[in-house]
Amino acid sequence: MESEELNIPRCKKFSGYKPCLSYKNCLENGCQEDISENHTGIKILFISLEALGAVLDNTAVLPAIKRKFPESTIYWLTMENAQKILHNNSYIDRLFIWNDEQRMILRNIEFDYVMNSDKSDYACAFTNEVNAKAKLGFVLNGDGKIVPANKGAFYSYKLGNDDQLKFRENKRSGLDILHEAFELEYKMDEYSFSFDAEEKSFINEYKKEIKYDPKKIYVGFNTGCSNLFPNKKMTIEQHVQLINELGKDKDKVIVLLGGREDTERNQKILATVDKSIKHNIISTPTTLGLRRGACFMDICDLVISGDSFGMHMAIALRKYIIAWFGLSCAAEIELYNRGEKLIPEGLECSPCWKRECPYNLECIQMIDLNRITVITRNYTKDLVTKD
């Protein structure tokens, strides 16, 4: 029998491999759950591959996609190391990993839209290969140059090619610009990240383990950053000075946060702080993976961080954030009115987006530790007892 003679359901649950439920024959009887949220509708491929913070940040466009296309199926393509960020995301119907097999599958799907947020040769080249009625964001031209795929992406494209615009003039957030690139309405939607049932249980058990006191304020220190841009973090000495000061407050508990690359750093910080406050410091495990790290951060009321993945996770968890900036562009980060940005004043070389600093890291030396202390105390002094 020819495939076109079959009644192929346009249901998100139907794979063509086996019934979605035992003995449920949708080919003969039609889809028995033919309701709008299960209907394939508009098919959209979203490409956001790497830089963990950018992948998490980009999830904030998902509510706008669903507002514009309420009956739709969202496919997301990302790198393997970023897939855990998107776990348990109710907006994403199918998650694909950047490998030969999964890209082959995507090439054979007829999409209505492909939205590529990545300005990389390979992401843009693959966007060219996708079978889609409309392409938004970025593609490659015939000379192999990255170019905007649509008029909405022009500003984002210009921003990346004009240092004066990017470093001095632009005041728009990256999410505002990204929505424009994808022709979506920007309503300051939050990042889309949620814990599953097991993780919520883990957080509750961890609180019991550390004897979590709802009457105290838990101040998280995200001490590190990606090795790709190592100059997005304070020195160990700066962290120790801050922790020694804030650790004296009886109403606060200091929480050290970080990933595997921050293990030794956090050990040095803990070993160096005043002995009199060590009982008031929780050093969370750093080797249990990205989502466990998010679980540990979730116990915090406030997070102090550089512009790193940890900062983006704090934004996703809707924490109050004190973030400092040096090499990166503070204007592009949306804190959702839950925090303060520390920006070096009068420093002509900042921002620069350089991996190595020729000026002895002045932007890090200029971080106002006293201001961080004052902001933290001002924010926490009026907080009432937590549930």
Helix content: 25-40%
Shape: globular
Low-confidence stretches at least 5 residues in length (pLDDT < 50)?
none
What fold name goes in the CATH topology slot of the largest domain?
Rossmann fold
What would CATH call the architecture of the largest domain? 3-Layer(aba) Sandwich
Beta-strand content bin: 15-25%
Biggest sheet features:
6 strands, mixed
**CATH homologous group name of the largest domain:** Glycogen Phosphorylase B
Whole-number average pLDDT? 90
Per DSSP, the total helix count is 15
Task: Please state how the strands of the largest beta sheet are arranged side by side.
Answer: 3-2-1-4-5-6
Number of strands: 12
Q: How do the helices and strands follow one another from N- to C-terminus? A: HEHHEEHEHEEHHHHEHEHEHEHEEHH
Q: What is the CA-based Rg, rounded?
A: 23 Å
Top CATH class of the largest domain: Alpha Beta
Tally of domains: 2
| Spatial gap, N to C terminus | 63 Å
Structural class, by secondary structure, is alpha/beta
List its traits:
387 residues, 6-stranded parallel β-sheet, single chain, alpha/beta, globular, Rossmann fold, 15 helices
Describe this structure in words.
The chain is of the alpha/beta class and about 375 residues long. The chain folds into two domains: about 140 residues, Rossmann fold, CATH 3.40.50; about 180 residues, Glycogen Phosphorylase B (Rossmann fold), CATH 3.40.50.2000. Helices cover about 30% and strands about 15% of the residues. A six-stranded mixed β-sheet has the order 3-2-1-4-5-6. Strands 9-8-7-10-11-12 form a six-stranded parallel β-sheet, sandwiched between helices. α2 runs parallel beside α13.
